[in-house]
Design goal:
single chain
C-alpha cells in the first residue's frame, strides 16, 4: 500500500499529462493509460470527492478529443473508473 504523499504524487503526475494544455498527444495517451493502470492502487485516494471530480473531468475532456487512440483509452479508463467507484456513480449520472 502506498502512502498518501506517494498517491498524491502519482495522481498529480498523471493528471498533468492528461490536461488539455498538453500538446504532445503521445503524452496524453500514455498519461490516460497510466491512470487506467493505476486505478486499482489509487482507489483509496478516490474516496475524496474533489479528486474523483477532477479525474472524471480529465477523462471526459480526453474522450472528447478528435484523436481516436486517446478517445479509446479514455473510454476504457472511464469504464475502469466506474468499476472502482460504482457505489458513487449516482453523482455522475
Amino acid at each position: 500500500m502506498l502512502d498518501n504523499n506517494t498517491l498524491e504524487s502519482v495522481i498529480m503526475g498523471i493528471s498533468y499529462g492528461m490536461k488539455k494544455e498538453e500538446q504532445n498527444l503521445e503524452v496524453r495517451n500514455l498519461a490516460t493509460q497510466a491512470l487506467r493502470d493505476a486505478m486499482g492502487f489509487i482507489e483509496v485516494y478516490l474516496e475524496k470527492e474533489e479528486v474523483r471530480n477532477y479525474l472524471v473531468g480529465l477523462i471526459l475532456d480526453n474522450i472528447n478529443m478528435d484523436n481516436k487512440d486517446i478517445k479509446i483509452i479514455s473510454i476504457q479508463c472511464l469504464i475502469d473508473f466506474c468499476k472502482y467507484n460504482y457505489q458513487r456513480l449516482d453523482k455522475y449520472i
